[in-house]
Amino acid sequence: MYILIHRKQDGPKYAEYIFGESEESVGRLRLDKETGGVTLIEAAPDDTNLGMFQRAERKLTQHWKAGVIPEKTCWAT
Question: Cβ contacts of residue 75 below 8 Å, gap of 6+?
Answer without folding.
Answer: 1, 2, 3, 5, 55, 56, 58, 59
